[in-house]
Amino acid sequence: MRRRPGPDSQATGVLGRTRPGSRSAAGVLGRMGPGFWAAAGWIALVLLAAVLADVLPLARYDETLAGPPRSGPSAAHPFGTDGLGRDVLSRVVHGARVSLGVGVGAVLLGLGIGAPLGILAGYRRRAADTVIMAVNDVAQAFPALVFALAVVAFAGANLRNVLIVLGVLGVPSWVRLVRGATLTYAEREFVLAARVLGARDRRILWREIVPNVAVPAASYAFIGMAVVVVAEGGLAFLGLSVQAPTPTWGGLINEGRTLLETAPHVVLAPSLVMFLTVLSFNLVGDRLRALTDVRESGLEPVREAGAAPLPSAPHEVRAGCLLQAEDLRTHLVTPRGVVRAVDGVSFTLERGRTLAVVGESGSGKSMLIRSILGLLPGSSVRGGHVYLSGDDLTARTPAEMRSVLGPRLGTVFQDPMTALNPVRTIGTQVTEPLRVHLRMGRRQARAEAARLLASVGIPDPERMLRRYPHQLSGGMRQRVTIAMALSCGPDVLFADEPTTALDVTVQDQVLRLLHRLREERDMAMVLVSHDLSLVARWADEVIVMYAGKVVERGPAAEVFARPRMPYTEALLRAAPRLSDPVHHRLSVIPGRPPDLADLPPGCAFQPRCPYAEDRCAREAPPLTGSYACWYPLDEVVVEGADSRGR
Amino acid sequence: MIIVNRLVRLLAVLLVVTFLSYVLLNLLPGDPVTQILGLSATEEARTQLRQDLGLDQPLLVRYLGWLGGLVTGDFGESYITRAPVASALAERLPVTLELLVAAQVIALGLAIPVGVAAARRAGRALDQALTAVSFALLSTPVFVLGVLLILVFAVTWQVVPATGWTPLSLDLGWNLTSVILPAITLGCGQLAVYARLLRTDLIATLQEDYITLARARGLSPRRILWRHALRPSAITLITAVGLNLGALIGGTVIIETLFGLPGVGRLIVDSIFSRDYLTVQGGVVLISVGYVAVNFAVDLVYAAVDPRIRRA
Question: Where are the transmembrane segments (chain A) (predicted)?
């Protein structure tokens, strides 16, 4: 019995979870890495120096002939002296006052004006949003730098004006950022839940939205600081910031230009300090942003697997067999531990037959196909062997593997919407393997591609070649991917859930097509599916997978008529049938698929198995004969509806 | 239809920008009359000049008059030099455009191979090194980078002149030596931006099913990267190039000053210093039109790159 959650528990549950702002600050800061801390340290150092500039034991910044003019770095003058013999270190430290003062001031000003507007626009959308977008358009086309120059030039080049101008110019960015962040959270379930519960807007804003907008805003504050420091430097470089005698970084660099030949240190010292400061602001901002940006994590391109590092058991290579897998294993190395996605799978497949691989999602079916093809994520290790007509595929290098992929092994994936490149025409995509593998010329490849498209039942193939994937229906696209998989005449066709993403009416057509093609071309087919009714109809043999292992195998008719492993039985019960009565209650497999990184000892299915005994929790049953189970089912009949509803 | 909508919207943006800048520039303290005649001029002379320049009219009337001229390509006459603003801009524009194009060529020419190389080896040493370098470039103000480049290439090695400009029509070789250093200075920051954008998008594209399937068809990694993955990953990059080209027409002020180039940016700064309102205003128009035109062009390029957009 599942307890029905009351409105209270639901609300607290939703409000309590998934609130990114409530992560432990200490834990997060601990993971920032040394770069972050070095950058934060540098910022602190420059800030401290700027604040304490007057009490530090330095020469006065405007004291001429504090040392000999244009002398290089020395103990008395670590950054040397400029053309008038003034201490460059002292001038850089005093310049930091202007740079950081303007930086902090302008960012606070931009934040102060921009954040309320942004929150308003993000939370109270409609009219506010339209206005903001229009203003944004204008702001982007508005030449901000020219405007800043004009204002400072006309109104007077002093700290206050520079600060106001740079602060105001930063407002549109602030509005955009805060509005974006607010929008993300205003749609999140915990805010919606709070709204539904009748929380007052002000309360929602302060309790739910502000804490979550704070992290992106803090991040942008640092990046904005870098922007302002550079902008102020630019103004100062043009002589449009705080005027002499007060030193500014941009002004120091501009003055130093005339001494490039005789005393380059006069330019290099403020340049280096400025670079490090801007770098530090950017770095701190970037690390803070990474806290909330999920895009950066978990991005890893699929790589071709190299040689097999996992040891494998001795076995016999069967000569007459088209495809043979022996003790195939794929382990993924994840932060949570090693995931045994494929754990010792063996099977054989003869020409002209269809092998079905069935199991729930996450049972390792797709990973098995990718292991055979050698298309694994970079963090994985593969073991065992795959033989194609006696030839060991796992011993091949990625480059050698490429001559097999396409000409001998064809592949069709689940979702035809994502299987075709959106920016290339169907013609380019279908002809490509023909031209690469079979070395056909352009004209010949196009004719062959049209023939292939016709053979998979696509009307008017010539015209279809000029189309783009988005102009085709899902069923048509899947036919195109099948045509591509067949283009080089493979011996084995791998079809990974080829119909799952399709309309029910189209599913049957596609399967018929696959079956017909398999017969016409005398191929073997590996059909991966979670849909047993489909498999029972088209497969000759079947392997049932659970937690990366084969738990039952045999001729399809036999396995489905008389399952021995309780998991197979459960799968069969869970499959809906057309012969079921109208209001028949669909049975589901209780529990969840196991966590592959943390498998229970003994049989992996044991926690969900209705027939489990003590031994099942202690020892894992080996795959002996056709099933892996200590207590196999005998004559349990699963045919009629009468035996199903228990 | 969408194109018409977009054009109307862009024209509206242009109107607002010109109006705002016209009003703001005129509201700021400072007076061209004082600038021309000096502080010691008599009140009659000032009034006379004011009438001659049309400054005695209300602001809105002046704006509308100026806007009317603008439609026919008349940007007005400089208060200071009395020369047509349009011709002053036309004279300076080629310098800035050449600088911009050269910088984009350098930035894109390097960013594409760098971004591809980094994405291909995402997370490995090369990627981390390239990411670090681009981050450092992003954090280097143009005048710092420019001064460093001058120090190395013009002062120490003396392979190019530090400052000055030779027009393309005069001598190709000298023209190139005078544009190369400023173009590198300008291009470096953009190189970093472009490479980062391309890397991120490419990494995402390389996760796509159609890339895995391309591998399953036995295509080489090189072919997959350049022919299958690059184009679907280029949209953000194109947007950034467009924004940059538009924004930089006036953003080259510092580089033009540093390298002594007679470009639009320099003209605008000089005009600001001399209170030459109409020239500044003309520069503003040029920048906004450039921005708007480039963004419109970018929309058209999108359609060429991604056929899904063509439906619109």
Answer: 36-59, 98-123, 135-155, 161-178, 209-242
Nearest to B283 by CA among B308, B260, B253, B255: B253
Q: Which amino acid is at A626?
A: S
* Distance, CA of A546 to CA of A523 (rounded, Å): 27
Strands A323-334 and A380-388: antiparallel
E runs forming strands in A165-308 = 302-304
* Distance of alpha carbon A229 from alpha carbon A281, whole angstroms: 10
> Measured at the alpha carbon of residue A557, what is the angle toward residues A553 and A563, in degrees to the nearest 5?
55
Residue B83 CB partners (closer than 8 Å, separation 6+): B77
Q: How far apart are CA A146 and CA A15, in angstroms?
A: 48
> Residue A9's CB: how many other CB atoms inside 10 A?
11
Higher pLDDT: B71 or A273? It is: A273
Mean pLDDT (chain B, rounded): 85
Using a CB-CB cut-off of 8 Å, the residues of chain A touching B29 are 154-156
- Which one is predicted more confidently, A580 or B288? B288
Tokens 């538009």 identify what position? B246
Q: Which residues in chain A are contacts of B141 at CB distance < 8 A?
A: 230, 233-234, 250, 274-275, 278
In this prediction, residue A308 carries a pLDDT of 46
Contact: A264, B151; criterion CB under 8 Å: yes
Rounded to whole angstroms, the Cα distance separating A77 from A90 reads 9
Which residues on B lie below 8 Å from A406 (Cβ)? Answer: 216-219
Residues 6+ apart with CB under 8 A from B225: B116, B120, B202, B206
Chain A residues within an 8 Å CB radius of B268: 146, 149
Contacts of A507 (CB under 8 A, 6+ apart): A499, A534
Confidence class of residue A141 from pLDDT cuts 50, 70 and 90?
confident
Q: What is the pLDDT of residue B194?
A: 92
Class of residue A57 by CB neighbours under 10 A (exposed 0-12, middle 13-18, buried 19+): exposed
Q: What local confidence, expressed as pLDDT, does residue A475 receive?
A: 87
Tens-place pLDDT, residues A415-465: 888 889 988 999 999 999 999 999 999 999 999 999 999 988 899 999 999
Picking from B215, B217, B272, the nearest residue to A302 by CB comes out as B215
Average pLDDT, chain A: 81
Closest CA–CA distance from residue A235 to any residue of chain B (Å): 9
Quick one: closest CA in A to B32, which residue?
A154
* pLDDT, mean of residues A391-416: 89
A55 CB neighbour count, 10 Å cutoff = 7
C-alpha distance from B221 to closest chain A C-alpha (Å): 9
CATH number of B94-309: 1.10.3720.10
CA distance A638 to A644: 7
Q: Do B218 and A436 touch (CB under 8 A)?
A: yes
Mapping DSSP to helix (H, G, I), strand (E, B) and coil, where does residue A85 land? coil
All domains of chain A, ordered by start, with CATH? 30-50+83-292 (1.10.3720.10), 353-373+393-408+490-579+587-646 (3.40.50.300), 425-482 (no CATH)
Q: How far is A425 from chain B (nearest CA, A)?
A: 9
